[in-house]
Amino acid sequence: MYRLLLTASIMSACLSGSATAQGTARPQPPTDTLLRTRLTALAATWTGLYATTLFGLSHYWYAAYPRSAFHFFNDGSEWLQMDKIGHAYTAYFESRWTMRALQWSGVRQPTAAWIGAATGFLLQTSIEVLDGYSAAWGASVWDVASNIVGSAMVVGQELQWGEQRISMKMSAWPRHYEAALQSRTDALFGTYPGRLLKDYNAQTYWISFNLSSFLSHTPPWLPRWLNLAAGYGAEGLLGGNHNIWAEGDGLIMRTDIARLRQFYLAPDVDLTRIPARSALLRTALEILNIVKIPTPALCYQQQGLKWQWLAF
Predict the structure, then answer these.
(1) Are residues 1 and 94 in the same domain?
(2) b vs e for 116-130, b when ≥16 Cβ sit within 10 Å of the residue's Cβ?
(3) 39 and 180 both lie in a single domain
């Protein structure tokens, strides 16, 4: 939750700037003139939100838990790697939206792409440093590697194609658990609506490919906004590595609940490629594009391949 709080603050700064002057949420065409007023306003807003959020996390979130000397923690096997994909997802959008705001400020490519990627990585790494001083967690090399992957997706595509042909997205839908698991799931995932941000059983992460951008000639029947998305999810996760936990004076063992990986293939929509004249609408589409629209999908897991009329 604290990572999403930091992300939301920074991305709000980026998007609010890029949606104002000249009424567009997309970056302006490259210019030889650096728009210093815009860049100064963006940098001031970004720095203020970044410092305020880190201060708040350090003094209000982490202060509630025991501190320790800086240390690393190997969590590469936890949660069937759902949390690692979440790191890449967060770093991707932090990098992408920072890059867009820099373009709006007159910073040319590839400079905007490199600074955007570095910014996304910096934001996530700052959280890892705080984790490293917490006795309850620890800095994770796997988290850092995931952050690099997310940021590299942005700069790599900009340098190769000059656009984001491949996007990361997330979808989620509330999961209902049996009464016997209520205390466990409440402790792990909290309550709604924030529960959707913490319950890995409820989430699916997607890599969404824009079809027309990979074709040398787009057929007239193929919409520019049509994507094909590959998704990854999990279910049965009641602990990081296993479904065994202490409760009261006893030990609860729910090894009867299988921990399963899920793989999806589904159509998708790139909302940023839908024509829109309104600056407000373009901004809304840019924000909403972080979410995978529910569509029919093929799903593969341990029991085999199955069809879902709506995959979240």
Answers:
(1) yes
(2) bbebbbbbbebbbeb
(3) no
